[in-house]
Design brief:
Blueprint (H helix, E strand, L loop, with lengths): L10 E5 L4 H12 L3 E6 L8 E2 L2 E2 L1 E4 L5 H15 L4 E4 L14 H26 L4 E8 L10 H21 L3 E8 L7 H5 L20 H12 L10 E4 L6 H11 L4
Parallel strand pairs: 1-2, 1-6, 2-5, 6-7, 7-8, 8-9
Antiparallel strand pairs: 3-4
Helix pairs in contact: 1-6, 2-3, 3-4
Length: about 260
């Protein structure tokens, strides 16, 4: 007997859901039957689609408390409630950790850690009586050396700690989990991994032999949002193909190491 994930009647918000992993998540949630809202600072050229339906766009900077309040309020006004929050907005360009400005590091932590906390804080009153699922998009970088993305990795480690804390504080009505993503083939794939990304042997160290597709991250999110994960909270689910190609980390670091 097959098991299907049915999110019909559920209302979802995917931050940063207009491209990359976020768009993949939104498309999967749409196919599962959810009404999906996506947000980013700027309107996209194309919105995620699934099952003949399209995600609804809302402009918002999730680092700004007033804009987050407006975002949550507009989702509720349009759809009557909120059941699933996916904190996907984040990321960081590769930089030399030793020389980049303190302001840059502060902005990376703000986007990848403080913004998800803000979104969850503002969504909690809406979801408290209704119940639901909050999902943080983390990274395997939270648990290993992360050359050129030090502040990002530290913020993601904090995000996983936040996941465990909110799971305790928001239980039992709202479940809070995280998905730790490994190498994923997004629009920024080459930017993040540099020349190594074009190496035919780049994925050799991944047991499954390839980067993740964005919708494969979406499958994990749909599971965590569904009743099938009804007894999971405070957990971090790794979607990394069995592990990252650690030998490549040294090559990535070398590409960004300043010349003598």
């Amino acid at each position: 007997m097959g098991v299907e994930i049915d999110l019909s009647g559920r209302v979802a918000l995917v931050t940063g859901g207009t491209r990359g992993i976020g768009a993949g998540i939104a498309a999967v949630l749409l196919r599962a039957g959810a009404r999906v809202h996506v947000c980013s600072r700027n309107p996209p050229e194309r919105l995620p689609e699934g099952a003949g339906r399209r995600a609804e766009f809302l402009a918002a900077d999730v680092r700004d408390p007033e804009q987050v309040d407006e975002l949550i309020g507009e989702v509720v006004r349009r759809s009557g409630g909120l059941d699933v929050v996916v904190n996907n907005a984040g990321g960081a360009p590769p930089v030399d950790t030793a020389t980049v400005s303190p302001r840059f590091h502060a902005k990376i932590v703000e986007l990848n850690l403080l913004a998800p906390l803000l979104v969850c804080q503002r969504a909690w009153p809406v979801m408290r009586d209704r119940g639901g699922s909050m999902i943080m998009i983390s990274s395997v970088a939270a648990r290993r050396a992360a050359p050129t993305i030090a502040a990002y990795a530290a913020a993601k480690a904090g995000l996983e700690s936040l996941t465990r804390t909110l799971a305790l504080e928001f239980a039992p009505s709202v479940r809070v989990n995280a998905v730790a993503v490994g190498v994923a083939r997004t629009e920024n794939f080459a930017e993040h991994f540099g020349a190594a990304a074009e190496d035919s042997g780049f994925a050799d160290g991944i047991p499954l032999g390839r980067p993740a597709e964005p919708e494969e991250v979406g499958h994990a999110c749909a599971f965590l949002a569904s009743p099938l994960a009804g007894y999971l909270t405070g957990d971090v689910l790794s979607v990394d193909g069995g592990g990252e190609p650690h030998p490549n980390l040294a090559r990535i670091a070398a590409e960004f190491r300043p010349a003598d």
